[in-house]
Design goal:
The chain is built from one helix and 19 strands. It is mainly beta.
Length: about 290
């Protein structure tokens, strides 16, 4: 009996699944998956997905309890979460997903005036973004828009210190004498809105290339730290002339879920006349 039931369900699962109880018939076209559980006192049929709705679930359970058969039938929708995504394919023609992304990289500022000795490994970038992705059915292209937080720092060599003069212009200052563990950087914090186009290289390929601009709404400060006479000194200077809105150009090459990213801004980090006119360039890993 069990073998017969399994064989019948396997055939029906490829095209149509029907269940009947008290002259009620449930028709499920193009089921994505059919599961049959059979035991001495339990028999359950579960159908996942139907035409136009991959999240649909039909479940019919018949259980032997005290020599009586108890039947239960339910339909509901499952949360289809794969990797970082929450929700995918809500109809037969479109693919929708909300994805979470994290990036960590090194800042390599360009066009830096010669007197500023910026160090790549004292400069950093971190990103945490939430994206909405739209992929047309059976297409290799994805269109995305996101919202998230980006933090960047541009650090100097330990013999230099950022400062702001009386006119509000950012420049170089001097550490007090006999100080240790010195560090000074310009920190930029951004609300970021990426607009991305992603190309997948084949239906079965795991390689993707993502390109697009990132709009940043910025704020920032100078952060300096040093130790003197067994005491710690930590200074923060605000209103340093950070450019309030910038646009980055970003590219990500991904294999499976891991990517390498490159990001460059043609706009200077600081406003004109408010400090050194360097540009933001960064590269790192992207998940």
């Amino acid at each position: 009996m069990k073998k017969t039931l399994l064989f019948a369900m396997a055939l029906l699962g490829t095209v149509t699944v029907r269940g009947a109880e008290d002259n009620d018939t449930t028709v499920i076209n193009n089921a994505r998956k059919v599961v049959v559980i059979a035991g001495d006192s339990l028999q359950q049929i579960r159908v996942m997905g139907r035409e136009g709705d991959d999240s649909y679930v039909y479940r019919n359970t018949i259980q032997l309890v005290d020599s009586n058969y108890v039947s239960e039938q339910r339909t509901y929708r499952e949360l289809n979460a794969i990797g970082w995504s929450v929700g995918k394919k809500n109809d037969a023609w479109r693919s929708h997903a909300i994805t979470l992304h994290f990036g960590l990289g090194v800042s390599l500022p360009t066009a830096v005036p010669g007197e500023y000795k910026m160090r790549p490994f004292k400069s950093f970038e971190g990103m945490l973004w939430l994206q909405y992705d739209y992929t047309p059915k059976k297409r290799l292209q994805t269109y995305s828009v996101g919202l998230g937080f980006t933090a960047r720092g541009y650090g100097l060599r330990d013999d230099q210190m950022f400062n702001k003069d009386a006119d509000g212009v950012t420049g170089l200052g001097l550490y007090p004498e006999n100080t240790a563990n010195r560090r000074s950087r310009i920190s930029v914090y951004s609300l970021s809105i990426p607009f991305f186009f992603t190309q997948k290289f084949g239906q079965k390929s795991h390689v993707k290339l993502t390109l697009g601009p990132v709009l940043n709404i910025n704020g920032g400060s100078i952060n300096s730290y040093f130790e003197k006479d067994d005491r710690d000194y930590d200074y923060t200077i605000h209103k340093i002339g950070i450019r309030p809105v910038t646009v980055d150009l970003m590219a990500v090459l991904r294999y499976y879920g891991v990517g390498l990213y490159f990001k460059y801004s043609p706009m200077s980090v600081l406003k004109s006349g408010r400090g050194p006119q360097f540009h933001a360039l960064s590269l790192g890993v992207y998940f």
